[in-house]
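REQUEST ID: PR-0412
SUBMITTED BY: lab tech R.K.
PRIORITY: routine
TASK: structure prediction, single protein chain
INPUT:
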Amino acid sequence: MRKTRFASAAAAAALAAGSLLALGQAASAAPQDVPPGGEHLPESVVLPTGDRITLLPNGTAGIEPAPGREGTSFLTPPSPSGDLVVVPTDRVAAITAGDEDPRRYNVSELLRGDHTDAAALTESELDQRAYAGLVPDTFPATTLAADDLRKFHLDLRTRAGKAPDGAWVLWAARDGSDFGSIEIDENGGASEALAPGDYVIVTGFWNDATDTRRGETTIGMTPVTVTDDDVTELLVEAADARPVSVEVEQSDAALLNAAFYMGAESADANLGYGTYLGPNDDAFLLPEPDLPEFERSFIYQPVLASPEGAADPYVYNLAFHDASGYPADTAFAPADDDLAVLAADYRDLGTPVDGQTCGYGDLTEGQIGMGYCRLVDTPVPSQRTMYYTADPEITWDNGLRAGLRDADGEMTDGFVASYEESFEPGPTARTIPNGGLSSGPVDATRGTDSGTEFFFAGTPVGGANDESLQLIGALGGYELTRDGELLASADGYDFYWDSAFTELPAGDAGRYTFTTELAQAPTTVDFGTSVSSSWSFDSESMPEGEFDRLAFPYVVLAADDLAGGYGDRRACQEVTLEMRTDEYGPVAHAEDMTFEVSYDDGATWKAVDLDRDGDTATAELRHPRKAKWVSIRTTALADNGTEVTNTVIRAYGLK
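STATUS: complete
OUTPUT:
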């Protein structure tokens, strides 16, 4: 039997983190074909300040300020390495002065090392790369002789005409040929040796909020030409910037935070700057730069909420985007009638627990934002009114995580549910989660790296009833066989945090069967008391350095009447089955599907007639009068020859 292990969540989460920011611009959230991992896996890390950064399955990053630090703002400096770096602005000065280590704020690198407490790490456990300011020093080294360089001097001034508390500044050649960072001194100035030419100076500078003043953050881009003169000077003044603000109809609404971003993209360069403002910070935007070769973008995403303990709680999730430049008016005041007003009913799946919601809105045709959301405490069950920007060009990715946490704050038992929607103005309603277990998003890969052939797969326990639902704390085991011969097996497999990973014999090929079996369901969840899945598929050895995503089909169930995992036993229930494959892998289509139900926890089964049309099939269920639970068994044969069988005991309940 070959060596078997689990791919940790940290590896997968770090890959996802690396895709969030590239020189300050949000990049594609599509996963990379790099072993090991499964991009459905989340992870979180606590910064030295106690603030927690959580990577969620939908690709967003949730920021959770530590108790007593709710007013903190956060800088997300662009990193040429692609790493996700999150630094509270009140720590930037200490890092710049050398009193604090920037490596403890590199979320990607911390998670790659499977670290969850940045303050607890020893020197040997930290990133061994050199850092330039807040990020790994992967900036290109200049190849020009000193005599070919000229002095560029920059001064930054706040709205009061003084040096800012902190700043993060980048310079970039307009043709995309070179870039680097500029370290601002305590007087708000800096000098850099640059070759004569045309540049864009990307600036973000701020004063932190105190007990006696509000904070202010100013961001912008300024084109500048470095001449052959001895010195080229540039003064950037916040007094030239216009306020960016929001006002809503609910008079007692309080700002929780706001994501604030501006970007510019050309054929040769992607530039941007983003920050995550606290409730006591004011935002200011410098005049739109004259950069005709760049497509400029703007984002302001505030979150406002009712006072704590309000009898009728509400949250505003607003998104003001412009993909063609800066908006003419940055004093945003949406009327409630122009927003979607969602009556949100947050349900538990068996046990009342604490939870958090996350709402992130971005362009439907392509993300331009930073991918950050504010985690709002949300006990389940509970109800709340949610106000959303209603615009067909904005798609909201809304999530709920609920369950029990360990001493480190990691969620160990519960569930995570999310859904995407472009809202229309007016009242609407939704239960979260809808519930109904069938299968979570399955991904599988085979490859060869450094002479070692391997197979790995992520198979979360969950469902997809107009949502993505995954259980946290589902444990079990798996087996991999080839032509009847056992190649690998393991127990203690965490269906949420782990991906199954096993080495394969060199040159191995044939008909494989991969099976998973749930041994322990989450204690806070009444559904999915037993879950088993099996895939039979053909596979061949991969050349060195190549990785192949396998088309592993899985079947999901949807029913409009399910809410919080329960349906109406008296109704004639219409269900829809759909065979899917990993959206980032090869496509496979259904050649056949079957469906069975059980009302006695799998002791007996009844075949259900399907009306199949391609990859989807519909059926009608008339439940026994005294039935309490519906268990399901589905099979599918894909056109690539792969067969899948999935059995879920207590997929949903009846009332």
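NOTES: Confidence is low (pLDDT under 50) at residues 1-42.
REVIEWED BY: pending
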